[in-house]
Amino acid sequence: MMFRVTGEEEGEEDDKRHDYITVLADGGESKPLPTWKTYLYTLQLQAPKPKKIVCQREIPGKPPFYGKEFHGNITREEADVLLSSEGDGSYLVRKSERAADAYTLAIRFDNQTKNYKLYYDGQHYVGDKRFDTVHDLVADGLIHFYVELKAADYIASLSNESNYAESPYLAYTDKRKRLHRSRRSANSKRLDFTDQAAEGISGGTNGSVPQQYLDDDIDSVDDVEKYEKAHNFKTQNFIGLHWCDFCANFMWGLIAQGVKCLDCGFEAHKKCSEKVPNDCMPDIKFVKNLFGADLTTVVKARNTPVPVVVEKCIKEIERRGVEAEGLYRIAGLHDEVESIRMAFDKDGENTVISEAKYDDINSITSVLKLYFRLLPIPLITFEAYKIIIDTMKQDEPRSRAQIIRIKEGLTKLPPAHYQTLRFLLAHLNRVTEKKPVNMMGPDNLAIVFAPTLMRCPEPDPMMSLMNAQFEQKALETMLVKFRDLFSRMSTTQNFEASGKRPSFDALRISDQPHFDKV
C-alpha cells in the first residue's frame, strides 16, 4: 500500500538541536556534538511537487469532499493520458471502475501512473496516515516515492550501521544525568525528616518520634537513573524539520514521519526505535501527572528513590497522624482528596499538605491509597503476584519455605517498585506499633491495602474474589515478617543458616528512636 512509512519517521530537529547545544554549553566533559546527516533531507527537497489535474467540466453528483481534481467516470487509460501530459507529480481522483461508491487516486511518478483506492472518513487516506486534503496526501506520497527510490540501500542500512553509543540521544542524556547530580546535595540522596527543622517541627503532634526512613539498601539518586525502563514510543506527526536521535538522519515526509517517546522525547525512525535499549530517562516536562503514571517513569523523571506523593504523604502521616483511630480504614473527604491529588499533579514536590491546610489526616491517607490504586502496573507487579499468591495457597503460613518463596517473588519487582514497597511497609510497621491507640494491626492494614497494592491478572472476577483472602494474608505476612523479607541480612543462605530474625540494625531503622511502646 502506498504512503506507508517503511520504517522511517521524523523528529523535532530544530528544538532538539537547540536543547542539545544548550545543555552542552554549561561546561564539563561531554560527548562531541552529533553530525546531523542531510542526505535524506536533500532528497526530500528534490522530490516532485504535487500538480492537480483540474477537471474542465461540471461533474454531476460530485462528492462534497473532493474539489476540481475529481474527474468522475473516466477510465484508467484516460487518466493515464491526462497525467502523462503533465509529468511526475500530477494527480487526479476518479470514480472506481471496479466498485460502486468507491474512488481511485491516480498519481504520476517515475513516468508511471500509480492507482490507489482512496478513502474518506473526515480525512483522506489510502493507508494508515490521514490527511486533511488530497493535495497533502499526494505531497507526502511523492516524498516517500522519491526518497525510497533514490536511497533504498541507504535507508535499509540506517539502523544497522548506527552506533548507539555515539547517538545524539545518548550524548544528550549523559549530560542531563551529570546536571541532575550536580543539582543534588549529598543529603538529598536519602529520604529523612530534615525538612522538619526548616518547618519548625520538633516532633509529631501525637508524641511520635520522627525517624529516618531509608537504609543503605535504598538506591541513591544516582542509582535511580540506572533503573531499566523501556521507551514509550508513539507515532508522531512532527512539524518542521526533524532528525533521528538514533542514526542522526533526517526523518522525511509530512506526517507520521517517525516515533517519539512520550516520557523522554526521544525521536527516531520507526525501524531505528526497534534497536534502542531500555534506557529511557524520563523528562519532567513530558511526564506531567503523578497520579496514573508508571511508577518507574515517575521516580526517574523526578530523580527520587520513591514517588514524591508517597514520601510526602507518609512523612505527614507520621508527623501527626499515627495515633489516629482507624488510620487508613476511615476515608477522607472526597473534595479534599481531589484537591490534594490535583495539587500534587500541578506542584509535585512543592505541594503543601500541612495540618494548617488539610487538618483531616484521613484525607492524606486516602490520597496515598489513591496513588497506589491508580498505578497502571500495580506496586506488586503481576509477575511477583503469581509467585506470592501461589506460595500463600500451598505452603504452611509464615514457614521458612513460604518466606523464601515470598522473597523470590519480591526479587521480580522492578527496582522502583521494590524500594517503594519497602518504604511503605516500613511505615506501616510503625503504624502497627501504635495499635493499642489507632486500632490498626497488621491484619487490619492488610485488609485495607491488599486490594490497593495487588491486582489479580486474571480477567475472571470470580478468580479475583477467590484470591482476595490470599492477597490479604500475603500482605499481612509481609508486615509481620518485614525484617526477614527486606533486611540486607535476610538472604536465603543467612536465613536458613541462622534461623533467627535479623534485627532492625540491619535495616538502619533503629539508627533513630522508634515510636514509644504503648
Structure description:
The chain is α+β, with helices and mostly antiparallel strands. It folds into 4 domains: 13-22 and 164-288, 2-Layer Sandwich (Wheat Germ Agglutinin (Isolectin 2), domain 1); 45-153, SHC Adaptor Protein; 289-375, Phosphatidylinositol 3-kinase, Chain A; 377-518, Rho GTPase activation protein (Phosphatidylinositol 3-kinase, Chain A, Orthogonal Bundle). The protein has 21 helices and 8 strands. The radius of gyration is 30 Å and the shape is elongated. The protein starts with 12 loop residues before the first helix and ends in a 20-residue tail after the last helix.
CATH classification class of the largest domain:
Mainly Alpha
Low-confidence stretches: 1-29, 183-222, 489-518
Q: What class do helices, strands and sheet pairing give? A: alpha+beta
What is the beta-strand fraction? 5-15%
What summary fits the major beta sheet?
Answer: 5 strands, mixed
Give helix and strand order, one letter per element, not per position: HHEHEEEEHHHHHEEEHHHHHHHHHHHHH
| Total DSSP E strands | 8
Strand line-up in the sheet with most strands: 1-2-3-4-5
Structure summarized in a few sentences:
The protein has helices at residues 13-24, 39-46, 76-86, 134-150, 152-156, 168-182, 195-199, 221-224, 270-273, 295-302, 308-320, 334-347, 361-373, 382-394, 400-410, 415-432, 435-438, 442-453, 461-480, 482-486, 492-498, and strands spanning 51-52, 90-95, 103-109, 112-120, 124-125, 233-236, 258-261, 267-268. By secondary structure, it is α+β, with helices and mostly antiparallel strands.
